[in-house]
Amino acid sequence: MGFIRPQLPPVDAGTFRTLPREERLKILTRHWVEHGFGTPNVVYLFYVVKCLLYVGGAAFVISLTPGLGTIAQAPSWWSEPIVYQKLIVFTLLWEVLGLGCGSGPLASRFRPVIGSVLYWLRPGTIRLPPWPARVPLTRGSRRTGIDAALYAAVLASAVWLLTRPGDGSHTAGSGTVGLLDPLTALPLVVGLALLGLRDKTVFLAARGEQYWLSLLLFFFPYPDMFIGFQLVMLALWWGAATSKLNRHFPFVVATMMSNAPLVPSRRLKRMLYRDHPRDLRPSRLPFLLAHIGTVTEYGVPLYLVFIGDGGFWTWAALLYMAVFHLHILSTVPMGVPLEWNIFFVFSLFHLFGAHGDISVGDLHSLWLLALILPSLVLLPLLGNVRPDLVSFLPAMRYYAGNWATSVWLFTGDAPARLESGLTTACRLPTRQMESLYDEGTALLMSHKVQAWRSLHSHGRAHNGLIDRVTQGQDDVVVMDGELIAGFALGWNFGEGHLHNGQLLRAAQERCGFAPGEVRVICLEGQPIHRRTQAYEVHDAALGLLERGHVGVRDMVTRQPWPTDGPDYPVYDVERVRPLRPALQRGIPAPAGDEDAAPPAQGAPS
Questions:
Q1: CB atoms within 10 A of CB 596
Q2: In angstroms, rounded to a whole number, what is the distance separating the alpha carbons of residues 569 and 579?
Q3: 479-517 pLDDT, tens per residue?
Q4: Dist CA 492 CA 485 (whole Å)
Q5: Quick one: which of 405, 553, 575, 491 has its CA closest to 112?
Q6: Alpha-carbon distance 121 to 144, whole Å?
């Protein structure tokens, strides 16, 4: 791996292009085990600089608050309550501009390195309303001048809030700068809520489940406000821990560690798998690391919120949890939630260190609980039971391998027509890479995304479902839904509900694909009480073709390359329209065509 050149498998691009999909995935997944994405060093430097800009930018902006002092005086004012308030606003602004999660090359964003603001200030781009049939004035998928103006108002209100001085009120153990006047947060609170009803993508990109909810706590007095902040952090940790109670997370650990720049040892990376290169299921080591992560996110926050007294063990817990988040940050995971982990580290020392004298038992206002518990308890409960109804972000089901995903299948010139038909600020990721590298390098790098997906348990289900839909057709271009969302919407962060049938319908309105030219396989996350995951197959022109379930047991016992052909086991299948290969060449199939064996019934034990 060079400073600019990526580390790629030793295979000729021309030969690679002619290989069956199974062989291509074998080459790339085996290469991933030892080299990860093969990221050039310049990419890691990019993210280091970006994190430094986040930290330095936040410190500089907050230091402008009257009464605090310069950045050089930060050790004397970092624990002021208004500092945490302004860090929340700054981080929300950073994320909603597209500078945080989902930015840069590790989110398949090469040129330009961000989307978000380049899309959401531009009328004509796609927006995805969350409840268009229920919320008045939100129908449609085309961004208007009003949407762009509302987004600009959100940015302006965040900037304005960052310039506000403290109210001069005195808080225990702090100076006289005081807190932000809660009314100054009202424009941002209302603006982001209205914008989210028009376009769920922007609300999710702002990390509304955390930062928007925290803005509401500004309306409560200190110390209730800080107890609310502590409870929000507790819910995030416990939600993440709960999301790891599945059979998927060890796959995430192995895949992520293989891509970690600070784990250079190929031998150690091979130890993450049962028998590289023959068996690429996770070994016992990722299972152990997964359990450690789960116990950490349950146990340490429990101690900090309900038991810690600010003494030695509290600070030991803070240091342990800080190392935990710094480890996550050091792996530079795909989707790059780097600033998010930095925010967590600062929150540890600010909320539970500097303000560790505040405990949940000091809460005075029950209205605070009435405000935040629906978001911190009811939404995660619903999201775990009905993942199809709640985004994995407000459901707090973070990065445990169990989220909604999709794969888009194109034939003919459909990818080029998708590019020309949508209003965007960039090209498809493969085309972006071709502007930086030669065509062969771009080909191998783009297929590395498929290898990354295949190493997860849900990617193994996708491989079987792709074979089921294509039935051996070899002229199909497979693209991960994350790449489509990043190109079409300007933001992607592992949220499969942003690139499912709703986005397909929006694309069809603009491109008018023929039957079979574009199909999408959507795989929902696993409900916490079931052993199956729902899937749907959509055709851009024909709509829903098939829905059913796949078994988690089948996903976690398979290799990351297709081996079962069109006979991948599916359950409770409802066939709406045929899946015959002729359809994928734009030739409508006759009604009642029986192109496959009768669907299996029941579910795996």
A1: 16
A2: 16
A3: 999 999 999 999 999 999 999 999 999 999 999 999 999
A4: 6
A5: 491
A6: 9
